[in-house]
Amino acid sequence: RVWNFSAGPAALPEEVLRQAAEEMLDWHGAGMGVMEMSHRGKEFVSIAEAAEADLRELMAVPDNYKVLFMQGGAIGENAIIPLNLMGSKGRADYVLTGSWSVKSRKEALRYGDVHVAATSEASGYTTVPPMESWQLSPDPAYLFTCTNETIGGLEYPFEVDLARIGRAEVPVVADVSSHILSRPVDVSKYGLLFGGAQKNIGPAGLTIVVVRDDLLGQAAPHCPSAFDYKTVAEAGSMYNTPPTYAIYIAGLVFQWLKRQGGVAGIERRNIAKAELLYGFLDGCEFYETRVDASCRSRMNVTFFLRDESLNDAFLAAAKEAGLAQLKGHKSVGGMRASIYNAMPLEGVQALVDFMRDFAARKG
Ligand code: PLP
């Protein structure tokens, strides 16, 4: 296997893939694989319940929050959230920090008024506007943030806590697709957290939503039933057939994560990985980074070769060395190494060794 730096779908822990392969034809003596089971049968219900319980434990989700296993991806949630939460207020606030939050705002405009509470557009989305500078509207239904911008490689260096600016009454929504479970988050500070599974959790097709109870039951009349949080919550995420296999793999990943010491344990590894890679980048003239050092993402490391005419040669040599999917997103250019939970320090070391060697040969 290669070291896979894809932004998502992304590398999964090898232990998880091996276990899934072993259980593919016969899950725990059921005589069938998980993909073939009824979602209402006792075997699959036990898998889904364990996955939810483990996720709750890992994220320390308070009892007054529902954990929903949905479909439609994070882009689907960009519509599902306003459909559920705009309510009679008809307005929401958005903080813009890069491609994903900009896209989320655009989608929300289809469902109500949107006010931009803060934007780092002027810096080319290389900074996160400090919370003290956010200008919230008088009575928004919610405030939307994307706390890790996967494309730009930007991560909030602080926990969003509107109590600090005297607006604790506004529910905070956060797109945590690309850093969920990579660091501790105080769920109680948020109204809703959501993310696609295909980076830190498992296969594409599963969307995780963690939502506070008081935000349920306000969906617009035209909100599809399958996307009404209250309907989904009341049916235990089984209003319609859930993405069963993706939930099963997610459950194996949650168990793997618990064996790594949970979120606190994996965070220590993630810090070590990010320090290794950014430390190398800062010390090598051949490469440059553009995101402000205070808000560099631990998960998605974006960097550039100073001589961009060498980009193709870099990617070809990296592939040759067993380092895959390093090309940056087309809107940003350059390179991006996504180093999610499943990427071991060894993989980041292999990347740094390769980059040092490439710079020595071409610099
Ligand atoms: N939001 C963020 C932060 C992402 O990284 C992605 C990645 O694909 C998305 C939204 C879109 O997710 P999906 O393709 O699952 O809809």
From TrEMBL:
It catalyses: O-phospho-L-serine + 2-oxoglutarate = 3-phosphooxypyruvate + L-glutamate; 4-(phosphooxy)-L-threonine + 2-oxoglutarate = (R)-3-hydroxy-2-oxo-4-phosphooxybutanoate + L-glutamate. L-glutamate binds at residue 40. Homodimer. Its main location: cytoplasm. The modification N6-(pyridoxal phosphate)lysine is found at residue 199. InterPro entries: Aminotrans_V_dom (IPR000192), Aminotrans_V_PyrdxlP_BS (IPR020578), Pser_aminoTfrase (IPR022278), PyrdxlP-dep_Trfase (IPR015424), PyrdxlP-dep_Trfase_major (IPR015421), PyrdxlP-dep_Trfase_small (IPR015422). Pyridoxal 5'-phosphate binds at residues 100, 150, 175, 198, 240-241. The gene is serC. Keywords: Amino-acid biosynthesis, Aminotransferase, Cytoplasm, Pyridoxal phosphate, Pyridoxine biosynthesis, Serine biosynthesis, Transferase. It comes from Azoarcus indigens. GO terms for biological process: L-serine biosynthetic process; pyridoxine biosynthetic process. Catalyzes the reversible conversion of 3-phosphohydroxypyruvate to phosphoserine and of 3-hydroxy-2-oxo-4-phosphonooxybutanoate to phosphohydroxythreonine. It comes from the Bacteria. GO terms for molecular function: O-phospho-L-serine:2-oxoglutarate aminotransferase activity; pyridoxal phosphate binding. NCBIfam families: PRK05355.1, serC_1. The keyword Chaperone does not apply. It is an enzyme of class 2 (transferase). Its cofactor is pyridoxal 5'-phosphate. Belongs to the class-V pyridoxal-phosphate-dependent aminotransferase family. SerC subfamily. It is found in: Cytoplasm. Pathway: Cofactor biosynthesis; pyridoxine 5'-phosphate biosynthesis; pyridoxine 5'-phosphate from D-erythrose 4-phosphate: step 3/5; Amino-acid biosynthesis; L-serine biosynthesis; L-serine from 3-phospho-D-glycerate: step 2/3. Binds 1 pyridoxal phosphate per subunit. Residues 2-351 form the Aminotransferase class V domain. This is Phosphoserine aminotransferase. GO terms for cellular component: cytoplasm. Pfam families: Aminotran_5.
